[in-house]
Amino acid sequence: MIKKEMIAMLLAGGQGSRLGVLTSKMAKPAVSFGGKYRIIDFPLSNCINSGVDTVGVLTQYRPLRLNSHIGIGIPWDLDRNFGGVTVLPPYEKSANSEWYTGTANAIYQNLEYMENYNPEYVLILSGDHIYKMDYETMLDFHKSSNADVTIAVMPVPMEEASRFGIMITDDDKRIVDFEEKPEHPRSNLASMGIYIFTWQALKDALIKNKDQAGLDFGKHIIPYCKEQGQSLFAYEFDGYWKDVGTLTSYWEANMELIDIVPEFNLYEEYWKIYTASDVQPPQYLGSDSAIERSIVGEGCEIYGKVYNSVIGPGVKIGKDTVVSHSIIMNETEIGEGCNIEKAIIAEKAKIGSGVKLGAFEEKENETKPGIYCEGLVTIGERSVIPNNVTIGKNTMVCGKTTAEDYKDGVLDSGRTLDKAGD
Amino acid sequence: MRAIGIILAGGSSSRMQDLSKKRAVCAMPVAGFYRSIDFALSNMTNSHIQTVAVFTQYNAGSLNSHLSSSKWWDFGRKQGGLYVFTPAVKASGNLWYRGTADAIAQNLEFLRSCHEPYVIITSGDCVYKMDYGKLLEYHIQKQADITVVCKDMPATIDTERFGTIRMNEESRIEEFEEKPVVSKSNTISCGIYVIRRRQLIELIERAEEEERYDFVRDILVRYKDMKRIYGYKIKDYWSNIASVEDYFRTNMDFLKPEIRHYFFREHPGIYTKVVDLPPAKYNVGVSVRNSLVSSGCIVNGTIEDSVIFKGAFIGNNCYIKNSIILNDVYIGDNSHIENCIVESHGTIQANSYYKEENGIKIVVENNERYVI
To answer: Which of A139, A192, A259, B146 sees the fewest Cβ atoms within 10 Å?
Structure first.
């Protein structure tokens, strides 16, 4: 009989709509990060580095990119005879077929998968945070506290605490109460959305609450466990942990990587982050290129100038082009003589020559001011931008655009130009 | 595919000077992130050859660790696979491989147990892309016993390292000289052969009986009039790296856009073992011109016309020109390196100065490394 002490269930089905056009064609965990990785690489690498070799990845929203990235798990050494990585999409049942309606509902629908491994503990993860964490230490804490549920928490500044789910603990880290986004927080320990359940406790809670609409861990399962008098503990984590749920936080997290000694250091030997990369060759920097304070992925060809930027693998940057404070993702091509300032350009886009991004005064975005803000220019994947156009700040462009789409060769700040359709 | 592959990877070369102290020639790093044997292995897999034997002998440590998993070249499958043969103690004796033919002879059981009718033999120290399927078609069409891949080299080439060939109009080889001091021909053998498996077994058995051990001298040259041996000329890029000059030149060739495009971007690609390194990082005060930089590097200084391999650290204010920095080298601040090959894992202390006026200097520095 197969037996695994702890298996992980990784929730990767969400769209992450606050990442705007970046997630229009792929789920948030599949979005590129840090010049080489995708967001899901962080929890997956944490799993294998922590000795968790059985991971179920729950997908729902636009899973193609995720599926092909994960494959059979070779990059993370998760191609196993027993266990390894399994992608778990929603499936049709003889009665009551449904999508995953909530985080816990998704796990409930895969009870059978978990039972196959006879686990003692189940680790619940979400696929949208950037961090390095040893889940084994968390499991040790779970065992030594005799907990039924352990929730990873992180101290946040008190003034920001009202944005999170807050745990109130006693001196032994036992959770005595919790509040969701409280107006007047009584503690600054924010839940990181990482849980270890003792298998019986999880199974019981899921079955008892299976008819709850939109069954959610934070809203239903944790309160249920508390009511049942089970022991809940908070495991305090004090490393780097970054939510990259919005375009601005995503941009900031990338920019933090280019500091001389970044807080989140990818260059450490002992906790490597693994990824599936199709491009491996070295990058070439041409005779007239210039580069400073940037990280650059494999196989790039850089003939222009790059400052304070994160450049993904296989990107081409033409002569006399200046890229600064920007994120350029995999295999995008940028022509000659461009000026690109504070832009996020998604995968496989084609930017013509003489293009200016991030021009003019800032104006509020006309369609989604909460998403396209802080002066960012966001270009969707596989977009085409013709030669010699100028695009302002807080803008979004996606799809194959032509010169006719730009009146007088200009797209003013705050405009949205969506030619991708769906 | 109706062939199996044999990669001859046992050799050392005095022409590699200090670079061969650490590894076999076939394990030499190439173009920032490959190892030399990747080209032969990738050509095999891209030609759908599923069973490949690698014969190793000299200093096989880094080569074996490079081949620790066959999955990178897609040989980790149920059918076929990657077989590494090192000399072993056997009931019949414990001999080193006394030559290329002897290496095959000592592992003849492997050849006998296969069922594919043909064998592609190649050396592992050449940088090239080739579809062995086309080569095999040519071999069959010519009804050849052996086909030898060859290439016209510029008249200035030093043929002393190669075998030279003269062919008639039908491409049948009339003359084959092994490592001539002065040659009448500048068509050289690339060390890639096709032969029928049974024919090979027969020839190897006979050579072994006569105590002859070299595939080129004792089979190709010896049988050239008796057997139908044909030449197959290639025009594409091919380069042997088994001397310091050629090794240096081959790496520098990758600074040319057409070579880079041919190897890095054109299908089918060349594969190598995946090492999980972060992207390259450039800090303040950097200047990089006409150079290749691999992943995992951290660059602080100036680099011109150079190839920087994986995981190198270049300190503040360094000046690197026309050099090859192999993997995991640490170069301290204010160092000057010009016309050098810096051996892998080396540590260059701050304020060092290395410059070779004529030719290329090999820098091997094993200083203690202090990393903050």
So the answer is: A259
